[in-house]
Structures are given as structure tokens and as C-alpha cells.
Write a structure and sequence with these properties.
The protein has 115 residues and is mainly alpha-helical. It is 67% helix and 0% strand.
């Protein structure tokens, strides 16, 4: 317990020293109005004709990654299925049931509707 408190004190002190040295010796930043504006993906701020990126695409991409990773687990399972018949089959049926339930839930919530 004492070693933990001492290590937190030592590393906290080192962090404060490094921040102080950086503030004292580091370059001074001058405020520039161009630096204070928001960056809109390389386009001028609030430019007409550029639509925001749809959130639905991110959701479908995440679901694709989630459901596509299952292929990485099916391949080794298929290779050892003949050696470990019962337990491997039961485990993969359980795994497939969990993935099917997740897919059904996403489908029921309308995750694949683009409207």
C-alpha cells in the first residue's frame, strides 16, 4: 500500500515538473482567427452543397464488421470439427444462435432501413 502511494506521488510530481518545464520553455502560441474556426473536413465552413455524413452508414458498417468477424471463427472451427465432434458443434451452435439473435434484434430495430 505504501509503495502504491509513493509511486503515485512520484509520478504525479514528475508530471507536474514536465508540464511546468513545457510551459516555461515551450513556444508561445499566438492566437490566429483562422485557427479558431471549426474545421469542416477540408471544405470552407458551412459551404453549401456538402451534406453531413449519414449516421446510418456508420451503423451498417459497424454491423458489417460485427457480423463479418464471425467468419474468422467459423474457419478454424470447420478445420477441427472432425476431431472434436460434440463440444465443438455445441459451442458453434451456441455462438451462431447469439449472432442470429443480434442480427434479428438489429433487423427488428430497423438498423438496415435507409429511409
Amino acid at each position: 500500500m505504501t509503495a502504491l502511494v509513493v509511486s503515485f506521488a512520484v509520478f504525479g510530481f514528475l508530471a507536474l515538473v514536465m508540464l511546468s518545464v513545457n510551459a516555461a520553455l515551450g513556444p508561445r502560441r499566438r492566437s490566429n482567427p483562422a485557427q479558431q474556426t471549426r474545421f469542416e473536413c477540408g471544405s470552407p465552413e458551412l459551404q453549401e452543397g456538402i451534406r453531413p455524413f449519414p449516421v446510418k452508414f456508420s451503423l451498417v458498417a459497424f454491423l458489417f464488421l460485427l457480423l463479418d468477424v464471425e467468419a474468422a471463427f467459423y474457419f478454424p472451427w470447420a478445420l477441427i470439427l472432425r476431431e472434436i465432434k460434440g463440444p465443438a458443434l455445441a459451442a458453434m451452435i451456441f455462438y451462431t444462435a447469439i449472432l442470429a439473435a443480434g442480427l434479428a434484434y438489429a433487423w427488428a430495430k430497423g438498423a438496415f432501413d435507409w429511409d
